[in-house]
Amino acid sequence: QQQVKQSPQSLIVQKGGISIINCAYENTAFDYFPWYQQFPGKGPALLIAIRPDVSEKKEGRFTISFNKSAKQFSLHIMDSQPGDSATYFCAAHVRYTGNQFYFGTGTSLTVIP
Amino acid sequence: NAGVTQTPKFQVLKTGQSMTLQCAQDMNHNSMYWYRQDPGMGLRLIYYSASEGTTDKGEVPNGYNVSRLNKREFSLRLESAAPSQTSVYFCASRGTVDYNEQFFGPGTRLTVL
User: Fold this and answer.
1) DSSP letter for each residue of chain A
2) A78 pLDDT tier (thresholds 50, 70, 90)
3) How far is A100 from chain B (nearest CA, A)?
């Protein structure tokens, strides 16, 4: 059973456009929600993260929107660039099972020049 | 400061063979993790070690064993490889402060024939 559900599976956006990736969860024990970026042949790297007591976090062109009541969070990439083409994973952290992270299934983003 | 290193980078095994994937980190992190990444499945936790001398099962531990050799090193062993274990394996480490990010290694691509 997938603890964190991510959509869409793939996304194609024009350069300068907005990329939006969505995630949903059920477990209210999750207490930290990071997004990871992964380029081909590389390991995932932390992009941006949010705690559930905050509704939005922005770092440069990347923004996380968090809706605690709906148990949903999303990544927005403004002014998308070809260099943003990568796979993006959302994740959720839970402390009571030994600080485990549960990952979404990933979104392959392609930004067309 | 190499971060998280993994060896080997690629490996091909025949069904029934055994092998050990090596992971080391130089960030003095207490927690270390082993994940497998499969298309459409995201990253799934195999085993983790919250501190030197302790290991615990994650979501998909069957067919694997781990050893936390010391604070730096965390190895993953496949005793009798099966084609279902064909995957990309990532090691990660994490500091002790809450919400610290996980740092991932470059991965090991394993094919079991």
Assistant:
1) --SEEEE-SEEEEETTS-EEEEEEE--TT--BEEEEEE-TTS--EEEEEE-TT-SEEEETTEEEEEETTTTEEEEEESS--GGG-EEEEEEEEESTTTSEEEE---EEEEEE-
2) very high
3) 8
Chain A residues closer than 8 Å to B50 by CB: 98-99
Q: pLDDT tens-digit profile of A2-51?
A: 789 999 999 999 999 999 999 999 999 999 999 999 999 999 999 999 99
Calpha distance B11→B21 (Å, rounded): 10
User: In the structure encoding, which two tokens stand for residue A16, read together?
Assistant: 């300068």
The whole-number pLDDT of residue B99 equals 64
Cα–Cα distances (Å) from B97 to B11, B25, B29, B71, in that order, read 35, 17, 10, 16
First to last CA, chain A: 37
Chain A residue whose CA is closest to B6 = A43
Structure confidence at residue B33 as a pLDDT band (50, 70, 90) = very high
Q: Which member of B42, B48, B104 has the closest CB to residue A105?
A: B42
Residue for token digits 């994740």?
A: A91
Residue A86 distance to chain B (closest CA, Å): 14
Type of residue found at A75? L
| Cα–Cα dist B67/B34, whole Å | 11
